[in-house]
Design brief:
alpha/beta
C-alpha cells in the first residue's frame, strides 16, 4: 500500500497505526498529488490512502487522473479533513472505494486497509 498526504504528522500517524499489523506493507509515501501519481505508477500498490487537500495536485485531481489511467486493481481510500457530506459522493464517483474523515477510525485503519485490499 501507499500513502499520500502533505502533512508529515498525519503520515507518521497513519504509518504508526498501519505498522501495528504485520499483514500491511507500506511500499511508498508521497507528500503531494503529483508525487503520489508517480509513486502509484512506479510501485503499483494494491491500496492507496489519499488526502484531498494537497499542494501541486489535490486528491480530486489525483482520483481523476487515476481513473483516466485505468489503474485497475488499485483501491483508493480517501482520508480527508474536509467535510464528508460535500465530498464523499464525488470521491466515490471518481473511483475511491472508501472515504474516511481524518481522526475517524484511525485505530481501525489496518483492518480497513486489509478489508479493502482483500476485495480486489
Amino acid at each position: 500500500m501507499a500513502l499520500v498526504d502533505d502533512a508529515p504528522e498525519v503520515l507518521r500517524f497513519m504509518e504508526l497505526y498501519l505498522s501495528r499489523n504485520d499483514r500491511v506493507e507500506i511500499v511508498g509515501v508521497a507528500n503531494n498529488g503529483r508525487d503520489g501519481l508517480t509513486l502509484v505508477e512506479k510501485l503499483k500498490p494494491d491500496v492507496l490512502l489519499l488526502d484531498l487537500s494537497m499542494p501541486e495536485m489535490d486528491g480530486l485531481e489525483v482520483l481523476r487522473e487515476l481513473q483516466a489511467r485505468k489503474t485497475n486493481g488499485l483501491k483508493t481510500i480517501v482520508v480527508s479533513g474536509l467535510d464528508r457530506e460535500d465530498l464523499e459522493a464525488t470521491c466515490l464517483e471518481l473511483g475511491a472505494v472508501r472515504y474516511l474523515e481524518k481522526g475517524e477510525g484511525f485505530a481501525q485503519l489496518p483492518d480497513i486497509v486489509l478489508e479493502v485490499g482483500a476485495a480486489a
